[in-house]
């Protein structure tokens, strides 16, 4: 549980918490969710916490998204984007700042993890500023160079490409070791960014 979640939880009664949990609906996103997704994600992007998304980008990737609602209110969203036959990225994970809901981030990660397992993925990974949250849901920090190089196709267009300060985390879903990942292009053509933050 994050500090923010604990603060919110302590300010509401147990009855309110139970009622809130009962009202939550977790489902795959549809095109009707795009305006709410844009508002939530780009609200955080304006603060430099997330990457901004366009209507086109979300439309193109709408099948990646899972959402949590309470009535008509979007409580949170997250996406599972497939990169290789054995790996996928958890991205665009966001919880509505105005929501009193507790545990929405964990609920979303669990839903995305179940989706990954259903699709026989070996591992899921993420780039984040809140590594502590991901550690609490079973991820561990890794050097970004250990992740499939194909992920860097998204980083090439990122404004933070040369000064990336996000932390790479990964969660293994299958006990057997990951087989080697074959690349669609020569590795020597991929220039990896140098993170500002050192791994501890």
Rounded radius of gyration (Å)? 17 Å
How many domain units? 1
Instruction: Report the principal-axis shape.
Output: globular
Low-confidence stretches: 1-19, 180-194
Note the quaternary state here.
single chain
Q: Can you count the helices? A: 7
What fraction strand? 15-25%
CATH structural fold name: Aminopeptidase
Q: What value does the average pLDDT take?
A: 78
CATH architecture assignment name:
3-Layer(aba) Sandwich
Main attributes of the structure:
single chain, disordered N terminus, 200 residues, Aminopeptidase, alpha+beta, globular, 7-stranded mixed β-sheet, 7 helices
Question: Can you give a write-up of this model?
Answer:
With 200 residues, this protein is an alpha+beta fold. It has one domain (3-176): Gcn5-related N-acetyltransferase (GNAT) (Aminopeptidase). The protein has seven helices and seven strands; from the N terminus they run H-H-E-H-H-E-E-E-H-E-H-E-H-E. A seven-stranded mixed β-sheet has the order 1-2-3-4-5-7-6, sandwiched between helices. The longest helix has 15 residues, at 104-118. Residues 1-19 and 180-194 have low confidence and may be disordered.
